[in-house]
């Protein structure tokens, strides 16, 4: 490129591994609403999360989401600016008070 010589070498795709490491942890939430889940992940109040969502700070499945009352599904990927990317993996159980216990994976 320019005055410098470059060497291009063909490689097979199998030589490159996709490394997806996720730390798994549990959260207990009262509903599957976006603001409830994000508040639990960020460890802040829902009113603070509402402002954060309205400022386009949250993406659901790689699309900016500004509807704070959106119902999330298992398998959704939540990208939270300055906090990381989270995947809702498994609905593990329900508590006696009908709260959801969800296993979440955080991309490392």
Automatic annotation (TrEMBL):
Protein name, UniProt field: RNA-binding protein
PANTHER family: MITOCHONDRIAL TRANSCRIPTION RESCUE FACTOR 1
Domain RNA-binding S4: residue ranges: 32-100
Pfam (any one): S4
CDD domains reported in the protein's UniProt record: S4
InterPro entries for this protein: S4_RNA-bd (IPR002942), S4_RNA-bd_sf (IPR036986)
UniProt keyword terms in alphabetical order: RNA-binding
